[in-house]
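To close the chapter, one final illustration. This time we ask the reader to focus less on the individual chains and more on the assembly as a whole: which components sit near each other, and how the overall shape emerges from the parts.
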Amino acid sequence: MSALIDGRAAAPLVNASRFRAAHEGEWDRLDQLVTRMEKRSVRALSEDDILALPLLYRSALSSLSVARETSLDRALVTYLEQLCTRAYFQLYGVPDTATRQLARFFARDWPLSVQALWRETLICLILTVAGVVAGWWLVATDPSWYYSIIPDAMSGGRDPSASAETLRATIYGPQEGGGLATFAAYLFTHNSQVAIFAFALGFAFTVPTVLLLVYNGLTLGAMLCLFAQKGLGLNFLGWLTIHGSTEMFAIILAGAAGMKIGTAVAFPGRYERTEAAVIAGRSAAIAMAGVVLMLLVAGLLEGIGRQTVQSDAMRYGIGLAALAGWLTYYYLPRRAEGQDALAA
Amino acid sequence: MRWRRNRAPKAPASLRRSFVTPEGVDLRLELASAGTRASAFILDILILFISLILGTILLGLLGIAQARAEIFLILWLVGAFMLRNGWFILFEMGGRGATPGKRLLGLRVVARDGGRLTGGAVIARNALREIEVFLPLSFLGMQASQGAADGFLTLFALCWTGIFLFFPLFNRDRLRVGDLLAGTWVVNNVRAKLGADLVAARAEQPRRIFSDAALDLYGIYELQTLENVLRGGQDDAIVTVAATIRRKAGLPDDGDDYGFLSDYYAALCARLERAMLVGRRREDKHATTGRR
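The assembled structure is written out below.
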């Protein structure tokens, strides 16, 4: 048996070759359009290109189906698979433009996701209040508890041994060292990082989130009790309220977001476990992004407003107004989904 | 449980996943391997660190020049925060669905259900990076800086990191905890060039004719292996494969290995394709030529 060499034999034109010859132009054009979209955005395409895109995409998809059934040329099938995948994600998977996403976030996604957390928010509020009461009670019965609740670095001289005058000086008068704005920036980044942890840890066990909230309440209660014993309770509360109303609210929301995920994983209800986690995760993450923005506001209020606004009435006023603002923004009834595309 | 010995060597666990488009075509996405994803992450972290260092130096120079340290300190604090949290989120929210590191390696973040990649999903998958990587790292760093790295705590941090870091290796879809929660996965999204048509390339030249018996030796699997060898173009592989085929088919050596293989490929391809069109698909050399 031998392999003859025959120059006159008809070319073994296989299906794949004919197929390539017929469609290669379309594939090339689609490839170019998708590449341009990947490099820049859909705006890089002309009107003709945009009209042609879905047609080219569908014809590439049908080429892929045909090639899989009739062709043995693996390079061709691989090429078409990758081309179709890239085109698919440019047509279906790409998020909205940044401005539209931002608009949607402020108009709908953020308040709605916070609204959806109302049950968890209530629980977190109760936990925080319980912490405050416990902190107050502990320090009121035995002042030495104060030292175990509040670390030295945080107290900064505000402890039971300090006189009423020193305590008064910490909430009124100029802040030592200056650098108000730096302080604000530091607080913002630090608190945000803590809030992100509270959110992420919620997925892990939910327990750390609860502990964090209770501890947060404990420190507040202990400090309140300390100042109240020196007759400065209301003054301290005012000093705290100006930024605290926003900050505490934000921390409670972060805890609620974490708790939502933790409970969705533990008690998925009607859904499959991962499915429940995904639904909770996506909406809680949006609330989380909002929390970071709230903390930015809190940081500004704290760093700049707290020491420059000296009157108690103003402090309460600003703090309560901020709280009222957040509550209205979040919980004011909104139109049901689907209707508010025009309202936004 | 029933034990069964595989006759043929088992193919490695595939990262291909069925993914049906609304048009009803299965794209068979290929998930990114854990190694590629780790490399992409390390690349991103490197770029992050370099930008942070460059930014610090730049701000330092500006700060000294204008002696307004406070503003630059604020810029640094907020800038560092944005870099740490915003880098992954902002890039993945963009049209490419990939950070620069992922882009360099041809990866892309995709919603598992095939829909749009929403902002919420991107934030969720990246916020969890905090407990997967940054929490134990900063914890270890803190311990080390205090010079009091408690043995037990260090061990705990290492275990924690281990669980989350190697999580992708323990599930078949290579999901991070963040991916699990956000409903995303990371797929290969490379640009392939359409290789030359091996059959058409030989069509113009005089070619060898093979007997049916010689062409009946192999099936589709061998054909595509041969395609890889031809496209790879490695001389020693071509010599070996050509020798094997000649020995099996009992053909004399005519000294042109590449030409021989190309012709054999074209002839086998035409034959298998013709059989396929009438419903006889021969997967590999072990399969008989009959109807499936």
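The first strand of chain A starts at residue 4 and ends at 6. The first helix of chain A runs from residue 15 to 39. With these observations in hand, you are ready for the problems at the end of the chapter.
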